Structure formats: structure tokens, C-alpha cells
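Attaching the record inline, Q. Sequence:
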Amino acid sequence: MNLFNQMFFLLAQVNVPGNGTAAAKAAGKAVSTAAKAGHHAAAQQGNPIYSLVLIVVMILVFWLLLIRPQQKQRKKQEAFLNAIKVGDQVYTNAGIIGRITAMDEGLVTLEIAKDTRIKMIKSQIGGYYKPGEKPRMDSDKR
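Structure, as predicted:
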């Protein structure tokens, strides 16, 4: 409402030729006093600390809803990768199922069929595979 009053105050100040009627002057005075009252009310706005508190609350909500769950999931995945060992049946993020036959620094060798082995990056192991269990889909996470 303050912006509305200020706009009319500015419009009332504009001097238009041939518009000097008494009604226009009266309207200008009414708008001028309303704009002054609006300007006075604008000067008495709330404490700026409320704005700061609002920003802090928004950051906290953002952290709780987005960043914290992602950190928990990353820690869980790191713990899983540290716990895997030779002989575990696992699946990869690409959907390949195999048994770990060897582990090197950051690399894993999977046996995916008899005498068929592949090397892959350890971080691409998605989880333990249990035969007969329904595979976990990406859409199941949601």
C-alpha cells in the first residue's frame, strides 16, 4: 500500500498544463496527505533482525531437507564399500551381478560368469546381491 500511495504522491506533484482546476488541486492535496501518511508508516517498518532470522530459518530448512540426508547416504555408502570383501556377491550401479574375486587399491575384480572377470572401480559397487531377492530399483528410493 505504501508504494501505491507514493505513486499517487508523485503523480500529484507532476505539473500538467491546463490542469489547474480546483478539483485537481483538492485531489492532489488528498493524495499528498495520504502519501505522507504512507511514507511515515513506511519509516516505522519492522526490525531488520526479523529478516535475518527468516534467512537463517530458510538456510536451516534447506540443510535439513537436502544436505543432511545426502551426507547420511554418502556415509552409509562409504561404510558399505569399506565392509565388502573377497567372495561377496554384489551388484554394480550398471546392473551387473557378480562375485568379488580380488580387490586392489580402488579397483575390484568381479567374476560375472565362469572364467569371465571384469575390473571396475570400487565406488561403482551398488550393494550386496542376495539371490531370490527382488533387485532394488532407482525408483524404489523415492
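Strands lie at 89-92, 97-103, 107-113, 116-121, 125-128. The first strand starts at residue 89 and ends at 92.

More tomorrow.
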